[in-house]
Protein backbone atom coordinates (compact mmCIF):
# COMPACT_ATOMS: atom_id res chain seq x y z
CA UNK A 1 0.00 0.00 0.00
CA UNK A 2 2.82 2.41 0.88
CA UNK A 3 4.47 2.01 -2.54
CA UNK A 4 1.12 2.43 -4.30
CA UNK A 5 0.44 5.69 -2.46
CA UNK A 6 3.88 7.01 -3.38
CA UNK A 7 3.39 5.96 -7.00
CA UNK A 8 -0.02 7.66 -7.09
CA UNK A 9 1.36 11.03 -6.03
CA UNK A 10 4.35 10.77 -8.38
CA UNK A 11 2.08 9.77 -11.28
CA UNK A 12 -0.19 12.75 -10.53
CA UNK A 13 2.75 15.17 -10.68
CA UNK A 14 4.11 13.58 -13.85
CA UNK A 15 0.65 13.70 -15.42
CA UNK A 16 0.52 17.47 -14.99
CA UNK A 17 3.93 17.78 -16.68
CA UNK A 18 2.76 15.80 -19.71
CA UNK A 19 -0.58 17.61 -19.95
CA UNK A 20 0.99 21.08 -19.75
CA UNK A 21 4.60 20.73 -20.96
CA UNK A 22 5.28 24.42 -21.57
CA UNK A 23 6.33 27.11 -19.09
CA UNK A 24 5.64 30.76 -18.29
CA UNK A 25 7.74 33.82 -17.64
CA UNK A 26 7.87 33.41 -13.85
CA UNK A 27 9.66 30.09 -14.37
CA UNK A 28 12.09 31.45 -16.94
CA UNK A 29 15.08 32.47 -14.80
CA UNK A 30 15.68 29.06 -13.25
CA UNK A 31 14.62 27.24 -16.42
CA UNK A 32 17.05 29.19 -18.59
CA UNK A 33 19.77 29.04 -15.95
CA UNK A 34 19.41 25.25 -15.99
CA UNK A 35 19.53 25.36 -19.80
CA UNK A 36 22.72 27.40 -19.80
CA UNK A 37 24.49 25.23 -17.20
CA UNK A 38 23.59 22.12 -19.21
CA UNK A 39 24.39 23.49 -22.65
CA UNK A 40 27.38 25.76 -22.08
CA UNK A 41 28.96 24.51 -18.88
CA UNK A 42 30.20 26.72 -16.05
CA UNK A 43 33.62 27.84 -17.26
CA UNK A 44 34.42 31.58 -17.36
CA UNK A 45 34.42 31.41 -21.17
CA UNK A 46 30.83 30.10 -21.13
CA UNK A 47 29.31 32.80 -18.91
CA UNK A 48 28.90 35.56 -21.57
CA UNK A 49 26.50 33.26 -23.44
CA UNK A 50 24.13 32.97 -20.46
CA UNK A 51 20.61 34.32 -20.91
CA UNK A 52 20.40 36.22 -17.61
CA UNK A 53 22.88 38.85 -18.79
CA UNK A 54 20.39 39.82 -21.52
CA UNK A 55 17.23 39.34 -19.43
CA UNK A 56 18.30 39.84 -15.79
CA UNK A 57 14.88 40.34 -14.21
CA UNK A 58 13.96 42.78 -11.44
CA UNK A 59 16.32 41.26 -8.86
CA UNK A 60 19.11 38.67 -9.14
CA UNK A 61 18.23 35.08 -8.23
CA UNK A 62 20.47 32.29 -7.06
CA UNK A 63 21.93 29.77 -9.49
CA UNK A 64 22.33 27.08 -6.82
CA UNK A 65 18.98 25.36 -7.46
CA UNK A 66 19.51 25.40 -11.22
CA UNK A 67 23.05 24.01 -10.94
CA UNK A 68 21.80 21.17 -8.75
CA UNK A 69 18.92 20.41 -11.13
CA UNK A 70 21.20 20.48 -14.18
CA UNK A 71 23.80 18.20 -12.64
CA UNK A 72 21.32 15.65 -11.30
CA UNK A 73 19.49 15.63 -14.67
CA UNK A 74 22.60 15.13 -16.82
CA UNK A 75 23.02 11.34 -16.42
CA UNK A 76 19.26 10.86 -16.78
CA UNK A 77 19.26 12.87 -20.02
CA UNK A 78 22.08 10.85 -21.54
CA UNK A 79 20.45 7.57 -20.50
CA UNK A 80 17.14 8.69 -22.02
CA UNK A 81 19.00 9.65 -25.19
CA UNK A 82 20.65 6.21 -25.42
CA UNK A 83 17.27 4.53 -24.93
CA UNK A 84 15.67 6.67 -27.63
CA UNK A 85 13.40 8.49 -25.15
CA UNK A 86 14.94 11.94 -25.70
CA UNK A 87 16.15 13.34 -29.00
CA UNK A 88 15.56 17.12 -28.94
CA UNK A 89 15.87 20.08 -26.60
CA UNK A 90 12.11 19.95 -26.06
CA UNK A 91 12.60 16.49 -24.55
CA UNK A 92 15.36 17.91 -22.35
CA UNK A 93 12.95 20.50 -20.92
CA UNK A 94 10.39 17.78 -20.27
CA UNK A 95 12.89 15.53 -18.49
CA UNK A 96 14.22 18.39 -16.36
CA UNK A 97 10.69 19.13 -15.20
CA UNK A 98 10.06 15.43 -14.51
CA UNK A 99 13.24 15.32 -12.42
CA UNK A 100 12.17 18.35 -10.37
CA UNK A 101 8.70 16.83 -9.95
CA UNK A 102 10.27 13.59 -8.75
CA UNK A 103 12.46 15.39 -6.21
CA UNK A 104 9.49 17.25 -4.80
CA UNK A 105 7.26 14.17 -4.88
CA UNK A 106 9.92 12.22 -2.97
CA UNK A 107 9.73 14.70 -0.10
CA UNK A 108 5.93 14.35 -0.07
CA UNK A 109 6.36 10.58 0.13
CA UNK A 110 8.69 10.96 3.11
CA UNK A 111 6.20 13.32 4.70
CA UNK A 112 3.42 10.78 4.15
CA UNK A 113 5.49 8.12 5.92
CA UNK A 114 5.94 10.42 8.90
CA UNK A 115 2.17 11.04 8.91
CA UNK A 116 1.57 7.27 9.00
CA UNK A 117 3.93 6.90 11.91
CA UNK A 118 2.57 9.88 13.84
CA UNK A 119 -1.15 9.71 13.07
CA UNK A 120 -1.79 6.26 11.58
CA UNK A 121 -2.14 4.65 8.16
CA UNK A 122 -5.67 5.94 7.60
CA UNK A 123 -4.54 9.53 7.98
CA UNK A 124 -1.61 8.95 5.62
CA UNK A 125 -3.97 7.55 2.97
CA UNK A 126 -6.25 10.58 3.25
CA UNK A 127 -3.19 12.86 3.12
CA UNK A 128 -2.18 11.31 -0.21
CA UNK A 129 -5.68 11.46 -1.67
CA UNK A 130 -6.12 15.09 -0.65
CA UNK A 131 -2.70 16.03 -2.07
CA UNK A 132 -3.36 14.22 -5.36
CA UNK A 133 -6.81 15.73 -5.90
CA UNK A 134 -5.64 19.30 -5.39
CA UNK A 135 -4.44 21.33 -8.34
CA UNK A 136 -1.76 23.79 -7.30
CA UNK A 137 0.92 21.65 -5.66
CA UNK A 138 0.89 18.69 -8.12
CA UNK A 139 0.78 21.12 -11.05
CA UNK A 140 3.56 23.43 -9.85
CA UNK A 141 6.09 21.07 -8.20
CA UNK A 142 7.67 20.43 -11.62
CA UNK A 143 7.97 24.11 -12.49
CA UNK A 144 11.23 25.97 -11.97
CA UNK A 145 9.98 28.67 -9.63
CA UNK A 146 12.41 29.42 -6.79
CA UNK A 147 9.59 28.43 -4.43
CA UNK A 148 9.48 24.91 -5.88
CA UNK A 149 13.20 24.52 -5.19
CA UNK A 150 12.58 25.80 -1.66
CA UNK A 151 9.69 23.38 -1.16
CA UNK A 152 12.11 20.43 -1.16
CA UNK A 153 14.07 21.39 2.00
CA UNK A 154 10.98 22.77 3.76
CA UNK A 155 9.19 19.44 3.26
CA UNK A 156 12.29 17.61 4.51
CA UNK A 157 12.29 19.82 7.61
CA UNK A 158 8.61 19.07 8.23
CA UNK A 159 9.34 15.36 7.83
CA UNK A 160 12.12 15.51 10.43
CA UNK A 161 9.90 17.33 12.92
CA UNK A 162 6.95 14.97 12.44
CA UNK A 163 8.72 11.62 12.08
CA UNK A 164 8.03 10.02 15.45
CA UNK A 165 5.46 7.73 17.01
CA UNK A 166 2.19 9.00 18.45
CA UNK A 167 3.43 8.41 21.99
CA UNK A 168 6.53 10.62 21.67
CA UNK A 169 5.77 14.22 22.59
CA UNK A 170 8.74 15.94 20.91
CA UNK A 171 11.07 15.18 18.00
CA UNK A 172 14.65 14.29 18.83
CA UNK A 173 17.08 17.15 19.34
CA UNK A 174 19.05 15.85 16.37
CA UNK A 175 16.00 16.12 14.10
CA UNK A 176 15.21 19.61 15.40
CA UNK A 177 18.77 20.75 14.70
CA UNK A 178 18.67 19.26 11.19
CA UNK A 179 15.30 20.93 10.46
CA UNK A 180 16.60 24.30 11.66
CA UNK A 181 19.68 23.91 9.46
CA UNK A 182 17.57 23.06 6.40
CA UNK A 183 15.19 25.98 6.89
CA UNK A 184 18.06 28.38 7.58
CA UNK A 185 19.78 27.33 4.35
CA UNK A 186 16.50 27.70 2.46
CA UNK A 187 15.86 31.19 3.82
CA UNK A 188 19.40 32.39 3.14
CA UNK A 189 19.85 30.87 -0.32
CA UNK A 190 16.50 30.09 -1.97
CA UNK A 191 13.56 32.07 -0.54
CA UNK A 192 13.91 34.65 2.22
CA UNK A 193 10.27 34.39 3.36
CA UNK A 194 11.02 30.94 4.81
CA UNK A 195 12.71 32.83 7.69
CA UNK A 196 9.21 33.86 8.79
CA UNK A 197 8.31 30.16 9.03
CA UNK A 198 11.53 29.32 10.86
CA UNK A 199 11.11 32.00 13.54
CA UNK A 200 7.89 30.66 15.17
CA UNK A 201 9.21 27.10 14.86
CA UNK A 202 12.33 28.04 16.81
CA UNK A 203 10.28 29.83 19.45
CA UNK A 204 7.97 26.81 19.75
CA UNK A 205 10.82 24.36 20.31
CA UNK A 206 12.61 26.67 22.75
CA UNK A 207 9.43 26.91 24.84
CA UNK A 208 8.73 23.17 24.64
CA UNK A 209 12.32 22.18 25.37
CA UNK A 210 13.14 20.79 21.93
CA UNK A 211 16.25 22.94 21.55
CA UNK A 212 18.48 24.99 23.82
CA UNK A 213 19.53 28.53 23.02
CA UNK A 214 23.29 27.70 22.96
CA UNK A 215 22.68 24.84 20.52
CA UNK A 216 20.36 27.05 18.48
CA UNK A 217 23.06 29.71 18.17
CA UNK A 218 25.60 27.07 17.23
CA UNK A 219 23.45 25.33 14.58
CA UNK A 220 21.74 28.44 13.22
CA UNK A 221 24.86 30.58 13.24
CA UNK A 222 27.07 28.00 11.54
CA UNK A 223 24.45 27.20 8.90
CA UNK A 224 23.89 30.89 8.21
CA UNK A 225 27.61 31.54 7.74
CA UNK A 226 28.07 28.55 5.44
CA UNK A 227 24.92 29.41 3.45
CA UNK A 228 25.83 33.08 3.01
CA UNK A 229 29.35 32.15 1.96
CA UNK A 230 28.07 29.53 -0.51
CA UNK A 231 25.47 31.72 -2.21
CA UNK A 232 27.81 34.72 -2.30
CA UNK A 233 30.65 32.76 -3.89
CA UNK A 234 28.46 30.91 -6.39
CA UNK A 235 26.17 33.76 -7.41
CA UNK A 236 28.85 36.44 -7.50
CA UNK A 237 30.61 34.24 -10.05
CA UNK A 238 27.55 33.58 -12.22
CA UNK A 239 26.31 37.19 -12.09
CA UNK A 240 29.84 38.61 -12.40
CA UNK A 241 29.20 41.00 -9.49
CA UNK A 242 31.06 40.98 -6.20
CA UNK A 243 29.82 40.56 -3.57
CA UNK A 244 26.31 39.35 -4.42
CA UNK A 245 23.84 37.71 -2.04
CA UNK A 246 20.64 37.38 -4.13
CA UNK A 247 18.13 36.90 -1.32
CA UNK A 248 19.48 39.95 0.51
CA UNK A 249 18.88 41.97 -2.67
CA UNK A 250 15.38 40.51 -2.81
CA UNK A 251 14.61 41.63 0.75
CA UNK A 252 15.90 45.12 0.06
CA UNK A 253 13.94 45.42 -3.19
CA UNK A 254 10.65 43.84 -2.10
CA UNK A 255 10.42 44.65 1.62
CA UNK A 256 12.65 47.61 2.49
CA UNK A 257 12.03 49.57 -0.71
CA UNK A 258 8.50 48.16 -1.07
CA UNK A 259 8.81 47.75 -4.83
CA UNK A 260 7.00 44.42 -4.86
CA UNK A 261 3.81 46.49 -4.57
CA UNK A 262 4.35 47.48 -8.22
CA UNK A 263 3.15 43.95 -9.10
CA UNK A 264 -0.12 44.52 -7.25
CA UNK A 265 -1.38 44.67 -3.68
CA UNK A 266 -3.95 42.66 -1.74
CA UNK A 267 -5.76 43.18 1.58
CA UNK A 268 -4.39 41.67 4.80
CA UNK A 269 -6.91 38.82 4.71
CA UNK A 270 -6.08 37.65 1.15
CA UNK A 271 -3.98 34.60 2.10
CA UNK A 272 -6.74 33.27 4.36
CA UNK A 273 -9.71 34.17 2.18
CA UNK A 274 -8.32 33.65 -1.33
CA UNK A 275 -4.92 32.00 -1.77
CA UNK A 276 -5.02 29.23 0.84
CA UNK A 277 -8.63 28.19 0.06
CA UNK A 278 -7.77 28.04 -3.65
CA UNK A 279 -4.74 25.83 -3.00
CA UNK A 280 -6.31 23.68 -0.30
CA UNK A 281 -9.80 23.25 -1.80
CA UNK A 282 -11.61 20.73 0.45
CA UNK A 283 -8.64 20.54 2.79
CA UNK A 284 -9.57 24.00 4.10
CA UNK A 285 -12.70 22.96 6.05
CA UNK A 286 -11.24 19.56 6.93
CA UNK A 287 -8.14 21.18 8.45
CA UNK A 288 -10.41 23.10 10.83
CA UNK A 289 -11.84 19.75 11.96
CA UNK A 290 -8.29 18.50 12.47
CA UNK A 291 -7.41 21.56 14.54
CA UNK A 292 -10.47 21.09 16.72
CA UNK A 293 -10.05 17.34 17.26
CA UNK A 294 -6.32 16.80 17.86
CA UNK A 295 -3.88 18.78 20.02
CA UNK A 296 -0.98 17.44 17.96
CA UNK A 297 -2.42 19.18 14.89
CA UNK A 298 -2.67 22.44 16.80
CA UNK A 299 1.04 22.22 17.60
CA UNK A 300 1.81 21.37 13.98
CA UNK A 301 -0.19 24.22 12.45
CA UNK A 302 0.61 27.00 14.92
CA UNK A 303 3.95 27.98 13.26
CA UNK A 304 2.32 27.70 9.82
CA UNK A 305 -0.53 30.03 10.79
CA UNK A 306 1.87 32.54 12.36
CA UNK A 307 3.96 32.38 9.18
CA UNK A 308 0.96 33.25 7.01
CA UNK A 309 -0.04 36.04 9.41
CA UNK A 310 3.46 37.52 9.21
CA UNK A 311 3.47 37.44 5.40
CA UNK A 312 0.02 39.03 5.38
CA UNK A 313 1.58 42.27 6.61
CA UNK A 314 3.27 42.68 3.20
CA UNK A 315 1.10 44.39 0.61
CA UNK A 316 2.11 42.20 -2.34
CA UNK A 317 0.76 38.67 -1.97
CA UNK A 318 1.02 35.57 -4.14
CA UNK A 319 -0.05 31.99 -3.46
CA UNK A 320 3.50 30.69 -4.02
CA UNK A 321 4.83 32.64 -1.02
CA UNK A 322 2.83 30.40 1.34
CA UNK A 323 2.90 27.13 -0.64
CA UNK A 324 5.22 25.59 1.98
CA UNK A 325 2.36 25.25 4.49
CA UNK A 326 0.01 23.40 2.13
CA UNK A 327 1.40 19.93 3.08
CA UNK A 328 0.93 20.76 6.77
CA UNK A 329 -2.67 21.86 6.23
CA UNK A 330 -3.21 18.63 4.29
CA UNK A 331 -1.95 16.66 7.30
CA UNK A 332 -4.44 18.55 9.45
CA UNK A 333 -7.20 17.94 6.90
CA UNK A 334 -6.41 14.22 6.73
CA UNK A 335 -6.55 13.99 10.52
CA UNK A 336 -9.84 15.88 10.48
CA UNK A 337 -11.20 13.53 7.83
CA UNK A 338 -10.29 10.49 9.92
CA UNK A 339 -11.96 12.02 12.94
CA UNK A 340 -15.13 12.68 10.93
CA UNK A 341 -15.45 9.12 9.56
CA UNK A 342 -14.58 7.47 12.88
CA UNK A 343 -18.03 7.98 14.41
CA UNK A 344 -19.28 5.01 16.42
CA UNK A 345 -22.84 4.91 15.11
CA UNK A 346 -22.99 3.17 11.75
CA UNK A 347 -25.51 5.47 10.12
CA UNK A 348 -23.58 8.57 11.22
CA UNK A 349 -20.35 7.06 9.91
CA UNK A 350 -22.07 6.24 6.62
CA UNK A 351 -23.22 9.86 6.21
CA UNK A 352 -19.74 11.11 7.09
CA UNK A 353 -18.15 8.84 4.48
CA UNK A 354 -20.57 10.19 1.88
CA UNK A 355 -19.73 13.73 2.96
CA UNK A 356 -16.00 13.06 2.63
CA UNK A 357 -16.53 11.44 -0.77
CA UNK A 358 -18.38 14.55 -1.87
CA UNK A 359 -15.44 16.71 -0.83
CA UNK A 360 -13.09 14.56 -2.91
CA UNK A 361 -15.49 14.86 -5.85
CA UNK A 362 -15.39 18.66 -5.49
CA UNK A 363 -11.58 18.52 -5.48
CA UNK A 364 -11.54 16.42 -8.63
CA UNK A 365 -14.03 18.65 -10.41
CA UNK A 366 -12.15 21.85 -9.61
CA UNK A 367 -8.77 20.29 -10.43
CA UNK A 368 -10.11 19.06 -13.76
CA UNK A 369 -11.31 22.60 -14.54
CA UNK A 370 -8.03 24.24 -13.53
CA UNK A 371 -6.07 21.66 -15.54
CA UNK A 372 -8.19 22.27 -18.64
CA UNK A 373 -7.51 26.00 -18.36
CA UNK A 374 -3.79 25.43 -17.88
CA UNK A 375 -3.53 23.20 -20.94
CA UNK A 376 -4.79 26.12 -23.07
CA UNK A 377 -2.73 28.80 -21.32
CA UNK A 378 0.63 28.49 -23.08
CA UNK A 379 0.14 29.88 -26.61
CA UNK A 380 3.82 30.84 -26.93
CA UNK A 381 4.98 27.26 -26.50
CA UNK A 382 2.33 25.96 -28.87
CA UNK A 383 3.13 28.61 -31.49
CA UNK A 384 6.88 27.96 -31.45
CA UNK A 385 6.38 24.19 -31.65
CA UNK A 386 4.12 24.67 -34.69
CA UNK A 387 6.60 27.08 -36.23
CA UNK A 388 9.52 24.66 -35.79
CA UNK A 389 7.50 21.95 -37.53
CA UNK A 390 6.21 24.16 -40.35
CA UNK A 391 9.67 25.33 -41.43
CA UNK A 392 11.77 22.33 -40.45
CA UNK A 393 13.32 22.15 -43.93
CA UNK A 394 14.30 25.84 -44.13
CA UNK A 395 17.82 27.11 -43.41
CA UNK A 396 17.42 30.89 -43.68
CA UNK A 397 14.99 31.53 -40.83
CA UNK A 398 15.10 34.58 -38.56
CA UNK A 399 11.99 34.66 -36.37
CA UNK A 400 11.05 37.39 -33.92
CA UNK A 401 9.16 36.26 -30.82
CA UNK A 402 6.74 38.76 -29.31
CA UNK A 403 6.57 39.41 -25.56
CA UNK A 404 3.44 37.27 -25.19
CA UNK A 405 5.11 34.37 -27.00
CA UNK A 406 8.23 34.60 -24.83
CA UNK A 407 6.15 34.85 -21.65
CA UNK A 408 3.85 31.91 -22.39
CA UNK A 409 6.09 29.03 -23.32
CA UNK A 410 8.63 29.99 -25.99
CA UNK A 411 11.61 29.02 -23.84
CA UNK A 412 15.23 28.47 -24.90
CA UNK A 413 14.59 24.71 -24.92
CA UNK A 414 12.08 25.19 -27.74
CA UNK A 415 14.70 26.84 -29.97
CA UNK A 416 15.33 23.46 -31.55
CA UNK A 417 16.86 24.68 -34.82
CA UNK A 418 19.83 26.43 -33.26
CA UNK A 419 22.56 25.46 -30.84
CA UNK A 420 23.75 24.71 -28.31
CA UNK A 421 22.86 21.01 -28.09
CA UNK A 422 23.49 18.46 -25.38
CA UNK A 423 22.05 15.30 -26.95
CA UNK A 424 24.03 13.43 -29.60
CA UNK A 425 20.93 12.94 -31.76
CA UNK A 426 20.45 16.70 -31.88
CA UNK A 427 24.00 17.18 -33.13
CA UNK A 428 23.50 14.64 -35.90
CA UNK A 429 20.18 16.06 -37.06
CA UNK A 430 20.90 19.80 -37.05
CA UNK A 431 23.05 21.03 -39.91
CA UNK A 432 21.69 24.58 -40.00
CA UNK A 433 21.12 27.38 -37.53
CA UNK A 434 18.12 29.63 -37.17
CA UNK A 435 17.94 32.96 -35.37
CA UNK A 436 15.35 33.24 -32.60
CA UNK A 437 15.02 36.92 -31.72
CA UNK A 438 13.43 38.02 -28.41
CA UNK A 439 14.24 41.75 -28.67
CA UNK A 440 11.57 43.61 -26.72
CA UNK A 441 9.41 46.64 -27.57
CA UNK A 442 9.68 46.40 -31.35
CA UNK A 443 6.78 47.73 -33.41
CA UNK A 444 5.36 46.19 -36.56
CA UNK A 445 6.95 49.05 -38.51
CA UNK A 446 10.44 48.42 -37.13
CA UNK A 447 10.12 44.67 -37.68
CA UNK A 448 8.99 45.21 -41.26
CA UNK A 449 11.91 47.57 -41.81
CA UNK A 450 14.39 44.88 -40.71
CA UNK A 451 14.99 42.80 -43.86
CA UNK A 452 16.83 40.01 -42.00
CA UNK A 453 13.62 39.07 -40.14
CA UNK A 454 11.82 36.43 -42.19
CA UNK A 455 9.05 35.51 -39.75
CA UNK A 456 7.24 36.95 -36.75
CA UNK A 457 5.21 35.28 -34.02
CA UNK A 458 3.10 38.31 -33.13
CA UNK A 459 0.48 39.07 -30.52
CA UNK A 460 -3.17 39.33 -31.46
CA UNK A 461 -4.57 42.57 -30.00
CA UNK A 462 -7.15 42.11 -27.21
CA UNK A 463 -7.25 38.34 -27.62
CA UNK A 464 -9.14 38.03 -24.29
CA UNK A 465 -11.99 40.14 -25.69
CA UNK A 466 -14.87 37.86 -26.69
CA UNK A 467 -15.70 40.21 -29.56
CA UNK A 468 -12.24 39.70 -31.05
CA UNK A 469 -12.24 35.99 -31.75
CA UNK A 470 -10.17 36.34 -34.92
CA UNK A 471 -6.70 37.85 -34.94
CA UNK A 472 -6.58 41.37 -36.32
CA UNK A 473 -3.41 41.71 -38.43
CA UNK A 474 -4.22 45.11 -39.92
CA UNK A 475 -1.08 46.54 -38.28
CA UNK A 476 0.93 44.20 -40.52
CA UNK A 477 -0.57 45.46 -43.77
CA UNK A 478 1.29 46.87 -46.78
CA UNK A 479 1.25 43.42 -48.36
CA UNK A 480 4.63 42.44 -46.93
CA UNK A 481 3.45 39.75 -44.50
CA UNK A 482 1.32 36.66 -44.95
CA UNK A 483 -0.66 35.08 -42.13
CA UNK A 484 0.42 31.43 -41.90
CA UNK A 485 -1.29 30.20 -38.74
CA UNK A 486 -2.91 31.39 -35.53
CA UNK A 487 -2.74 29.93 -32.03
CA UNK A 488 -5.64 30.16 -29.64
CA UNK A 489 -5.53 30.48 -25.86
CA UNK A 490 -7.97 30.38 -22.99
CA UNK A 491 -10.03 33.57 -22.80
CA UNK A 492 -12.82 32.66 -20.38
CA UNK A 493 -16.01 30.67 -20.03
CA UNK A 494 -19.33 31.03 -21.84
CA UNK A 495 -22.57 30.16 -20.03
CA UNK A 496 -25.53 28.88 -22.04
CA UNK A 497 -28.65 28.58 -19.83
CA UNK A 498 -30.65 27.20 -22.76
CA UNK A 499 -28.58 24.00 -22.72
CA UNK A 500 -30.23 22.93 -19.47
CA UNK A 501 -33.66 23.32 -21.00
CA UNK A 502 -32.66 21.00 -23.85
CA UNK A 503 -32.48 17.98 -21.57
CA UNK A 504 -30.21 16.22 -19.10
CA UNK A 505 -27.75 15.12 -21.78
CA UNK A 506 -27.00 18.76 -22.59
CA UNK A 507 -26.36 19.87 -18.99
CA UNK A 508 -22.60 19.58 -19.43
CA UNK A 509 -22.81 21.96 -22.41
CA UNK A 510 -24.06 24.80 -20.19
CA UNK A 511 -20.52 26.04 -19.62
CA UNK A 512 -18.05 25.96 -22.49
CA UNK A 513 -14.47 27.16 -22.73
CA UNK A 514 -13.84 30.22 -24.88
CA UNK A 515 -10.56 30.24 -26.83
CA UNK A 516 -9.57 33.26 -28.87
CA UNK A 517 -6.65 33.86 -31.21
CA UNK A 518 -3.67 34.86 -29.06
CA UNK A 519 -0.70 34.66 -31.43
CA UNK A 520 -0.26 34.73 -35.18
CA UNK A 521 2.59 33.30 -37.26
CA UNK A 522 3.54 35.70 -40.06
CA UNK A 523 5.90 35.12 -42.98
CA UNK A 524 7.51 37.85 -45.04
CA UNK A 525 6.37 37.65 -48.65
UniProtKB/TrEMBL annotation:
Signal peptide: 1-19
Superkingdom: Eukaryota
Pfam families in alphabetical order: Glyco_transf_22 (PF03901)
Alphabetical UniProt keywords: Endoplasmic reticulum, Glycosyltransferase, Membrane, Signal, Transferase, Transmembrane, Transmembrane helix
TM annotation in the entry: 94-111, 147-166, 178-207, 297-315, 321-341, 348-370
Subcellular location(s) of the protein: Endoplasmic reticulum membrane
E.C. designation(s): 2.4.1.-
GO biological process terms held by the UniProt record: protein N-linked glycosylation
This protein's GO CC annotations: endoplasmic reticulum membrane
Coiled-coil ranges per UniProt: none
Catalysed reaction, written as an equation: an alpha-D-Man-(1->2)-alpha-D-Man-(1->2)-alpha-D-Man-(1->3)-[alpha-D-Man-(1->2)-alpha-D-Man-(1->3)-alpha-D-Man-(1->6)]-beta-D-Man-(1->4)-beta-D-GlcNAc-(1->4)-alpha-D-GlcNAc-diphospho-di-trans,poly-cis-dolichol + a di-trans,poly-cis-dolichyl beta-D-mannosyl phosphate = an alpha-D-Man-(1->2)-alpha-D-Man-(1->2)-alpha-D-Man-(1->3)-[alpha-D-Man-(1->2)-alpha-D-Man-(1->3)-[alpha-D-Man-(1->6)]-alpha-D-Man-(1->6)]-beta-D-Man-(1->4)-beta-D-GlcNAc-(1->4)-alpha-D-GlcNAc-diphospho-di-trans,poly-cis-dolichol + a di-trans,poly-cis-dolichyl phosphate + H(+)
InterPro entries assigned to the protein according to its UniProt record, in alphabetical order: GPI_mannosylTrfase
GO molecular function: dol-P-Man:Man(7)GlcNAc(2)-PP-Dol alpha-1,6-mannosyltransferase activity
Membrane-related topology note: Multi-pass membrane protein
Listed pathway(s): Protein modification; protein glycosylation
Function: Mannosyltransferase that operates in the biosynthetic pathway of dolichol-linked oligosaccharides, the glycan precursors employed in protein asparagine (N)-glycosylation. The assembly of dolichol-linked oligosaccharides begins on the cytosolic side of the endoplasmic reticulum membrane and finishes in its lumen. The sequential addition of sugars to dolichol pyrophosphate produces dolichol-linked oligosaccharides containing fourteen sugars, including two GlcNAcs, nine mannoses and three glucoses.
Family: Belongs to the glycosyltransferase 22 family.
Name of the featured protein: Mannosyltransferase
Amino acid sequence: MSVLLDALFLATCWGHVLLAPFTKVEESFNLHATHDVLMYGITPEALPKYDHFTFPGAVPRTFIGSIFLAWISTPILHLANLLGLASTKVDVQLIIRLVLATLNASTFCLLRRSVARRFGNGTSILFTLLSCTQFHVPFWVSRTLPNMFALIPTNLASYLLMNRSAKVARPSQRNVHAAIALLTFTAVVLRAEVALFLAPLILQYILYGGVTIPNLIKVGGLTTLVSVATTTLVDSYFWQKWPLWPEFHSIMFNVVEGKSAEWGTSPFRAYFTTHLPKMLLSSAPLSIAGLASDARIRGLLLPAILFVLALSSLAHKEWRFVVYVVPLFNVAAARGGMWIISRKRRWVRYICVLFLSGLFAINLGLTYTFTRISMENYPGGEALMRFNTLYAGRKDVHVHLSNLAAQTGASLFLQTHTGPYILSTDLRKRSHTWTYDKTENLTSISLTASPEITHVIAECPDFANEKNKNCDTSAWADGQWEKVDTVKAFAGWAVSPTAFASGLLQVFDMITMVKNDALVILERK
